[in-house]
Design a protein that fits this description.
The protein is α+β, with helices and mostly antiparallel strands. It has one domain. About 40% of the residues lie in helices and about 20% in strands. The chain has six helices and six strands. Strand 4 (about 100-105) and strand 5 form a beta hairpin. It starts with a helix and ends with a helix.
């Protein structure tokens, strides 16, 4: 598991399920079964999830929230899991793949969740913590 995946789990998965997700994604044997949970994920922290209509301009929405051009993909679709892709390609591949996926745009802050066949689509967004905001300010000085 890489730092990007860890940020996704620590931010957008419910606290009660985080340890299991982290341990399972780190295990080559258990990783596929855990990724399969993305198809009907009940482990998302609802405090940071906003249901989106199917006709949402996802790329436009994510860019308006500060998404960069490149993003990280955590997916049940083997061909894109663990990839760093341009945002528009990640969204397109997620939709055409049809399996549960999280596209992480800003680690620990902004992501998009796609349920199996797009049954549920959610914006995952969390405001930066006070510590992160203070650290950014110090870096600018």
């Amino acid at each position: 598991m890489n730092a990007h995946e860890e940020a996704i789990i620590r931010t957008f998965i419910t606290p009660a399920r985080r340890t299991r997700w982290l341990e399972s994604l780190a295990s080559a044997k258990r990783r596929p079964a855990m990724l399969d949970r993305l198809n009907h994920c009940q482990d998302l922290d609802e405090r940071y999830a906003t249901l989106l209509p199917s006709n949402t301009d996802l790329v436009g929405l994510l860019r308006s929230r500060g998404a960069p051009n490149m993003c990280y993909v955590l997916s049940c679709t083997d061909g894109i899991d663990g990839s760093v892709l341009p945002l528009d390609e990640a969204v397109s591949a997620t939709t055409s793949g049809g399996w549960g996926t999280i596209i992480s745009c800003i680690p620990g802050r902004l992501a998009y969740y796609y349920d199996e066949c797009g049954a549920r689509r959610m914006l995952l967004e969390r405001a930066p913590t006070r510590q992160a905001t203070a650290a950014k300010r110090r870096m600018r000085l």
